[in-house]
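Deviations from the work plan: none for this task. Representative record:
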Amino acid sequence: MDLALIVSVQVLYAVATLVIISAGLAVIFGMMRVINLAHGEFLMLGAYSAIFATKAGINIWIAMLVVAPICVGLFGIVVERLIIRHLYGRMVDTMLATWGLSLLCVGLVTSLIGNTTSGVSTPEGNFSIGAYSVSFYTSALIVIAVLLLFAIRWVLRSTDWGLIARGTMQNPAMADVLGISPTRVYSITFAVGAALSGLAGGLLAPVSGVVPTMGASFIAKAFITVIGGGSSILAGTASASALFGLINQLATFITTPVFGEVALFIAAVVMLRMLPQGITGRFFKGSL
Amino acid sequence: MDRRKFIQTTAGGIAAGTAGMYGSSALAADDIKVGSIHDLSGGLDIYGKPMVDALTLAIEEQNAAGGLLGKKVALINYDSQSNMQKYTEYAQMAALKDKVAVVHGGITSASREVIRPVLTKNKTLYFYNTQYEGGVCDRNTFCTGVTPAQTVQKLIPYSMKKWGKKVYVIAADYNYGQITSQWVKKYVTEGGGSVQAIEFFPLDVTNFGPTIAKIEAAKPDFVVSALVGGAHMSFYRQWGAAGMLKKIPMASSTFSVGNEQVVLAPEECNGMVLSYNYFEKIATPQNKAFLAAFHKRFGADYPNVTELAMGTYQGFKLWAEAVKKAGSIDRVKVIEALESGISIDAPSGKVTVDGASHHCILDVSLAEVKNKKLDILQTFSQQAPSDTSAVCNLKKNPADNQQYVIKV
């Protein structure tokens, strides 16, 4: 019984991790159709921001939840202005440009900070479920992932800004006619996506080794989650995270972490064969 | 995975541009050239940087004492960037282009097996100075680091006596972790205990949540860790965060080699038991003098001189001693001098080359992690590399060239 509970907590944790690492990509790719291959490096920059802020004496929660997204969000604005803006609608070109950006980020951070693994300690504390202990941070990540989904939903559905952003993505010419500047909306949306990636990096900093190349271990999973989710960014990300997180973690429990990853990718391939439009291409149609 | 490799190579390339190949600028025509192939960037640089620092100091000391055979010793340093292809490339460059007298280098066992055949084929003497899984038998190669018969054999009985007989093993997924975990199993079984499970992790795994829950379910008396590299450090963080450190103790054959105890918080690793040849707290006059010189050269705030750094320092000293005895840097003459049982008074104690196995007889200590420091618990004097010498005799079979692997 205790084991079942602990397995469920771990599954929820895996799902939460997928939600957190994919949210930024879901906004940038799902809404703007920009394939951001530098997504992993946005995570990495967020992780480093959180680490530097913590080392400067800022409370770790503020560093992760506030400093990391703000830093990467600002970086996102700069990137959008300098690179992405000129390439809207040219998918292959954005891929190449963001790939180049990804290499540049890794190279710059390596030469500035060095290629040594750094990190911060996980916030203290744990509680027990029967004979097992769960770290407080694991449950915090689950709660944060849920809040994150609700926050995105609230912004997109219940605020003017969400409506404007969705409208602009659907028909920028019409938005322009109605007196909304699409360039500004694009810029803000990209910054929000980047900030979400930064948040993910900040949140992952305490539980993973932070190196300039850390993005590579997350980007494949983030892309598979977003693409597996399909056209609705919110329902898609949530359902794909739930499916892949469950498969990954159960396989890991039964066998080894290596096979857990393999199971995730096999599941993704099989699913995309059966549902080429992603989960929300068939289910939850028309949801956000 | 092409993209990842591409990133690593590119990142490494940029890093190499800044790091450069220092030492080569001071090269004069008749200097004795010593090659060093270590990772100074990439995921394994936590191991490589201290090794190169120690080698630099050893060579500077040699030159300050008048050099070797009346000549200056020059270090040619190659940054292999935690990339196996670079190892092949630089091993060839060292042997064929720069024609060095000896190569010190290789960190993981995987990298050793990449450069060892290259150097053996090109008749360039090779020193591998890292603690490793044992069994390498090659007349051109000297392994000066400790092997499982010297470390694991002390670590396991001590831990079993202290904590109990049920053991859970977690190890890095390549030849080092696979072979070392078999040694752990052997010593646990010999001590009347049982190994509940052995789990392997590729070097880039960072989520250990399910593993930690599995370990909790298995309820071992202690865990043995042979995890390697930066990503695996998150295991200790997650283990500490789940409050496991207080419940299930841990012994490790790799911890602290990359100064993990300095990076992690004390509450994430206090109480862990380790076994190596060298610890900073060894209280001999030789070690005090070494540490004074080291800190003078690299700064008083240098975090900790690691096992691998000391291995490299001692490896160079052994080679230099053999060159003096041979009166030449000729490969065969130096090998013969080393095989005659060269011995040095090193900071870690007496270190003697075992001529038959090309491994070393040296002191081994058990230590405990305590508030970012390593406190010595017990020292075992002059331990022989009995795992390798049981299967490898290069005096009888000089043509032998293989790595023997334990069968359990």
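DSSP finds 14 helices and 16 strands in chain B.
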